[in-house]
Amino acid sequence: MSDHNEAANRLMREREAVEKIYQAFSLQNPDLLDEAVTPDWQDIPLAPGQANGPQGLKPIIRSFIAAFPDVQIVIQDLMQLPGKIAVRAEITGTHQGTFMGVEATGKFVRIRLHEMHELNGERVTKTWHMEDWFGLFMQLGKYSSLP
């Protein structure tokens, strides 16, 4: 196999691994994480009480699905180099269960998501992420304006 084909195959494998993380939410299948990330995957920052690795994120995915049963994550932009992928995405869903202490509102929401992934050629080893939680709380009616 040529170096060009090897490089193209690596990029394809890495992109598929990253896409699988988002599919774990959209397809309501947290076990997809086992195919997407390494057992010692670092998710930065960790949620309160979250452990590293796929097992640490699975309960969070389950609680997100319970609160937003129609959750979808759509990748809007993806930039990639071998071993690094940057993603700008949008999470959408209808708030039908308690989430972060907020009882169901029935409101459809959009949450901005930005992530940087580090990969080993097959799976994600580290993810830095930032979600627009303030924007979510504003959509849910918890904050109407800044003080």
TrEMBL record:
<dbReference type="Pfam" id="PF07366">
    <property type="entry name" value="SnoaL"/>
</dbReference>
<dbReference type="GO" id="GO:0030638">
    <property type="term" value="P:polyketide metabolic process"/>
</dbReference>
<dbReference type="InterPro" id="IPR009959">
    <property type="entry name" value="Cyclase_SnoaL-like"/>
</dbReference>
<dbReference type="InterPro" id="IPR032710">
    <property type="entry name" value="NTF2-like_dom_sf"/>
</dbReference>
<protein>
    <submittedName>
        <fullName>Predicted ester cyclase</fullName>
    </submittedName>
</protein>
